[in-house]
Each structure stands twice: as C-alpha cells, then as structure tokens.
Amino acid sequence: MSRVEQQQKGYFGSFGGSYVPEVLQPALNKLEQAFEQYREDPEFVQELHYYQKEYIGRENPLYLAKQLTKQLGGGKIYLKREDLNHTGAHKINNVMGQVLLAKRMGLKRVVAETGAGQHGVATATACALFGLDCVVYMGEKDMQRQALNVFRMELLGAKVVAAKTGNRTLKEAVDEALMDYATNHADTFYVLGSAVGPHPYPTIVKHFQSVIGVEARAQHLMKEGRLPDYVVACVGGGSNAIGLFAPFFADSEVKMIGVEPAGKGIETGLHAAPLSHGAPGVIHGFRCYVMTNEQGEPADTYSIAAGLDYPGVGPEHSYYREIGRAKYVSVTDAEALEAFTLLSKTEGIIPALESAHAIAYAIQLAKQLTPEQSLIVNLSGRGDKDVQQVFEFISK
Ligand SMILES: *Cc1c(COP(=O)(O)O)cnc(C)c1O
Fold first, then answer.
1. Ligand 1 center to residue 377 CA distance, Å?
2. Which of 76, 258, 360, 381 could pair with 339 in a Cys bridge, judged by C-beta atoms 3.0 to 4.6 Å apart?
3. What is the distance between the alpha carbons of residues 105 and 99, in angstroms, rounded to a whole number?
4. Left (φ > 0), alpha (ψ -120 to 50) or beta: where does 351 sit?
5. Closest CA relative to residue 321, chosen from 243, 248, 257
6. What is the pLDDT of residue 5?
7. What is the model's pTM?
8. What CATH number has the domain spanning 12-51+91-205?
9. Which of ligand 1's atoms lies nearest the C-alpha of 381?
10. In the chain, which ranges are continuous DSSP H helix?
11. What number is the average pLDDT over the span 234-248?
12. What is the CATH architecture of 58-89+210-395?
C-alpha cells in the first residue's frame, strides 16, 4: 500500500484519523491488523452470528407502531427493536464483536471505559460469558451516581476502578483506560463503546453495529416492498445511528436524520449537540465536530440522557454532515420526556431516554408524511434504567 493510502486510512473526509501518544500506536496497528484478518473470516463470522442469534436474541423485530402512527395521522412509524437485545440496548452488538476479536487474538484481559455504566455492563456481560478478566474504568463521581450499575458489573465478575482525577467522569475514565491499554496491550484488549476514538475503532464499531441497518433494511423491504423514506436515530457518540444508517448509504432516496440532545435548550448552552452547534476539532484521539465555548475551548456538556452526554461525535457522522448525506437536528430534554411518555402510553413500550430523543423527532416528522410514506426509528434501548430518574424529574 502506498504512503498516501496509508495516511488516508481511518479518515472520513477530513475527520477521524489517529491523534494519540506514540506509545499507543503499536497497539492500534495490531488491532487494525487483527480486525482486517477476521472481519470476513468465515469461522469468525459464523461464531459472531451464533452469539447474535442465541445469546443476544437477534434478529429483533422491525415493529410497526400502529397506535402511534394512527394517533399522529401521518406516515408509518417502524421501530427497530434494539431494546429487546440481551442487556437491553444496542451496545451488546459491538461488545460481542470486539470480545470475540479479543478471543481470536489470544488476549485474556479486557479493559473498557464507562460513563453511566451501560457500556461497562455490556462489556462485563460478554467477559463473564467468555471467562475473560474485565477491568472497567469509571469516573468516581459516576460511580456514586450509578451505584447499581457498579454492583451489576461486580456481580458479573468485573473489577470497577475509579478514575479520581479532574471532573471524575467519563473523560477521565477514557484517559485511564487508554493508559492501561498502552501499557498492557501485549495481553489486553480495549473494548471501546461507541463509534468514536482513534482509527480503527470507528470502523470496527460501525462494522459490528451495521447488523441493525442490514436487518432493518431487509425487514422493511419484506413488509412494504420498498425502502423507507427516512431512517432516524439518536446520536451520542453515534454508534446506534451509524449502525442503522451505513447500510442505507447507497440508497440515495432514503433520508437519514441523526438526533442530538438539545438539553435544556441550545440557547442555554446546556446541551451536547456538537454536529448541530459545534466546530471541527480534535478530541480523544480523532478529528470530529466538538462542543466548544465562545473561546473555542472544549465546552461542558449536558443531557438528561447520560448516554448522549458526550462532547465529540463519530468521525463518520461528521463526514455525513459535511457532504450532506445525513441531516442532524436536536431535541430538548422536555421533548424527549414527552416522547418517553407517549410511546409508553400508546404502544406499551418504555424507551431509553436516549432513544426517546429519536422518537421525539420521528413524531414531528411522521406528521408531515403521507400514509404511504414510512420511517424507521431506532429504539436503541429500553427505559427500565431511566424510570427512577424520570419519576424524580416529574415529581419535582
Ligand atoms: C449509549 C447509548 C446511546 C448512545 O450511544 P451511541 O453510540 O450514540 O449509540 C443511545 N441509546 C442507548 C440506549 C444507549 O445505551
């Protein structure tokens, strides 16, 4: 491969790449090589498929939300039911792929970072299944806020290590996990939780999450005899969205809409919407749209949905935005809460607060469509984890 190609690897337009300390690059190179070796390997593909079916419970339904559609009186709303996966969200799709890759590479130890704990729990689950040592880094503050998820991970046999520097949240947990990986990559695999980070992670995560869009596309064709007019998903780091979107990339008639959290309102500054209201920059080892303040420095983020509360976003979404292939919009806490309640009442499905952002936009959109048109919205996770928080919020 020529020099130029080498440098362009891992870029989506001008986004992505690998901006990491030199000590980390050999580990990433080794990972890329293994991924390229196994991604199409028939035995690997067969093993992944086995666990997708028998353990995660795929394929999950593409469910026509008939009541909700009827109530809104517009286009058909289909829900891709990632909430029905084992562990209750899409994250396990990616974790299963990465942990099987770790096994192929002969690595016995896994590290991961986690914010609210969802990715940590998914990683601890897969490590329990395959008997791998699992260390999850978590901000000390997050450990206090999410004590139950800490207990879940411990129950699954993982060791949860507190990141005690700085704000003691996700960023510090990422730093510590990367440091561990740089030191221990001879026997350790770093399971990254979203379509972010240095190359090859965004490509790996997209690959393992694309099962969402591949299934949804075939299911919609089967049910409607045509492709959907829109695909809609919430965007934190962007893994559930890229998993749904990427298999529709070449279908130019299918419009893609990513929904970011507007928090308490864009004008308050309390949001986490880098694609709609950020600027290009480098964060956590890759180039993407980043939340910045008036001085152009990294800004604090906020969302009612912990899984969407991230200052950067996947490089491929940054590229989709740049070339206009996808559109990115934002939805406030209040709008997401309304959708959370509406889907619960009309369909008997309590969505994750993250997914409720996508539902909220889908509701607005469906009203503008004709009954012959349809959209697919990714129900990235179930809301059981959020019921307490919503209860406290509504009680106030
Ligand atoms: C983590 C999470 C998200 C956000 O992560 P992405 O990488 O943007 O998909 C969305 N929904 C649920 C249910 C999550 O747990």
1. 14
2. 360
3. 10
4. beta
5. 257
6. 45
7. 0.96
8. 3.40.50.1100
9. 13
10. 3-8, 25-38, 42-51, 66-72, 91-104, 118-130, 140-145, 147-155, 170-184, 201-209, 211-224, 239-245, 274-277, 315-323, 333-347, 353-367, 387-395
11. 98
12. 3-Layer(aba) Sandwich (3.40)
pLDDT one-digit tens code per residue, 104-124 = 999 999 999 999 899 999 999
For residues 244 and 172, give the distance between their C-alpha atoms in angstroms, rounded to a whole number.
29
Residues within a 6 A CB radius of ligand 1: 89, 91, 118, 194-195, 234-241, 307-308, 352, 354-355, 380-381
Within the chain, all domains assigned CATH 3.40.50.1100 are found at 12-51+91-205, 58-89+210-395
Give the number of other CB atoms < 10 A from CB of residue 261.
Answer: 31
Locate the ligand 1 atom nearest the alpha carbon of residue 196 and give its number: 7
Nearest-CA residue for atom 7 of ligand 1: 239
Pocket test for ligand 1, best of 308, 330, 350, 386 (most atoms within 8 A of CB): 308
Q: Hey, what are 203's tokens?
A: 């490509």
Q: How much distance in Å is there from the Cα of 206 to the middle of ligand 1?
A: 13
Token couple for 317 = 């979404």
Q: Supply the pLDDT for residue 298.
A: 75
Residues designated as active site: 91, 113, 380
Q: What is the pLDDT of residue 2?
A: 41
Q: What is the three-class DSSP state of 46?
A: helix
